[in-house]
Amino acid sequence: MAPIPKMMKAVQIEKTGGIEVLQYKDCPVPSPKDDEVLIKNEYLGVNYIDTYFRTGLYPNPKPMILGREGSGSIAALGAAVPASLAFANGDEVVYLGTSAYAEYTTCPVGKVLKIPKGVSSSDACAALLQGLTALTLVEEAHKVQSGDWILVLAATGGVGGWLCQILKAKGAKTIGTVGSESKIDIAKEQGANVVVIDQPGQGDVLKTVKDCTNGQGVAAVFDGVGKDTFERSLECVARKGTKLSAKNAKVVRPTLFNYISTREEFEHYSEALWAMMIDKKFNVRIHDIYPLKDVGRAHTDIESRKTMGKLLLKP
To answer: What digits encode the pLDDT tens for the residues 206-228?
Structure first.
């Protein structure tokens, strides 16, 4: 491998604000701690939470390098990386961590995975965070059974698209909502059985749910939209379903990292995700790949909420 440089390009913020605070600049290449690996990044994931750190909605010490996930190759191993993990310099890996918007990133070895044969580096990066989120939702937040009717809001969004594919693979029946007519075919391609346009005067989500379920409601609502749809989602869920308490059901606000907190859990769900991608030939929808220096354009696009699929950066 090429020698590790002392400096690298990264995107750093020193204050909160709009895309103008995103600084593409030279920064020192970090050194891995004993339990970390240094990764030479090939692709970096863009997530909506990145904009929350940028704007200050989620406070964080400054200066900071944004980014929560990436893929690339191992450039150096920390002194205490367990031999049992069989990592070596040059291994192609994908990871969940911090400070990913850079040419090099250090990451705790517990959140680094080898990319399996049959999965590309770009697909691994695009799939890991959102795919694992969707998979743990249907396995942990609500254990979906074959034949269940499920409502997925924003069915062509990052997590929504993965949910539709995973639910189809599990034999569930999915009602997906979209924001425009142009997204209907995409939602169906992802696996939604029924698609409704969730805009005033264009579609009635509650009526569609009742019609599809003979008035019973869905077994679960996966609502990634938030407070604007919460009350309606409560009306859509069946008695003892997953969303509310008034109908002897439950409301949950799951977090991915609660379900993959151990190495065993992380590997278990990741291996299941890779298997689905390879065996079921899942569609890894990538909206666009942006040069790292164009990160401002990527943030503008994701904030528009008009994107479909994953946004990636390339250092």
So the answer is: 999 999 999 999 999 998 766 66
> Using CA atoms, how far apart are residues 76 and 85, in angstroms rounded to an integer?
14
β-strands 112-114, 92-96: how paired? Answer: antiparallel
Region of 297 on the Ramachandran plot (φ > 0 left; ψ -120 to 50 alpha; else beta): alpha
Q: Over the stretch 174-211, which tens digit does the pLDDT of each residue have? A: 999 999 999 999 999 999 999 999 988 778 999 999 99
The edge-to-edge listing of strands for the beta sheet with 7-13 is: 23-28, 7-13, 64-65
Q: Residues for the chain: how many in total?
A: 315
Question: Cα(296)–Cα(313) distance, rounded to whole angstroms?
Answer: 11
**Residue 29 φ then ψ, to 5°:** -70, 130
- Separate counts of helices (H) and strands (E) for the chain: 9, 15
Instruction: For residue 53, give the nearest of 299, 226, 313 by alpha carbon.
Output: 299
Q: Which burial class, exposed, middle or buried, applies to 283 when counting CB atoms under 10 A from its CB (0-12, 13-18, 19+)?
A: middle
